[in-house]
Design brief:
With 158 residues, the chain is of the alpha/beta class. It contains five helices and eight strands, in the order βαββββαβββααα. The protein is elongated and about 70 Å long.
Length: 158
């Protein structure tokens, strides 16, 4: 097990969420599911917790009840190499959820994700601040990040 593992608290949708996430990301699997027994507090056989892996990253999920919900103050950042990967993850993860600005979305369970092409970081980190600033301005106008539009802003002559 990796040293630090994100632990996600769901009301009662942990199993549904794990299945949803592993269906979206390659090289992913549910590793374990623990169910409540006779002692409760939930009905016997219902999911208490589980462990799953998304592309090599381990996660834990808990059906902890409605006391706590997700907030955008923490999100899962996904590095994407291609526009096709951005497009696919954007559509699949936002299904039943909410699309937002600058590559952010909230999935149907309320968990926030950032679907970001690696090209964005490279362009924003360019020592030519005029290029980086043009890319930042372009990105701030987007919901889903569009690599071609970023590249156009990057290549533009001031």
């Amino acid at each position: 097990m990796q040293k630090i593992v994100p632990f996600l608290w769901f009301n009662d949708q942990a199993e549904e969420a794990m299945n949803f996430y592993v269906s979206i990301f390659k090289n992913s699997k549910i590793k374990t599911i623990h169910r409540y027994g006779e002692a409760g507090p939930s009905p016997k056989g219902t999911v208490m917790s589980g462990a799953f892996e998304l592309n090599g990253q381990e996660f834990m999920a808990l059906n902890g009840g409605p006391q706590f919900t997700f907030t955008p103050a923490i999100s899962l950042f996904v590095n994407c190499e291609t526009q096709a990967e951005v497009d696919e993850l954007w559509e699949k993860l936002s299904a039943g959820g909410e699309k937002s600005r600058c590559g952010w979305l909230r999935d149907k369970f309320g968990l926030s994700w950032q679907i970001i092409p690696t090209a964005l970081g490279k362009m924003l980190g360019d020592p030519d601040r005029a290029k980086a600033n043009r890319v930042m301005r372009a990105m701030l106008q987007m919901d889903k990040i569009d690599i071609c539009r970023l590249q156009e802003a990057y290549d533009q002559r001031s």
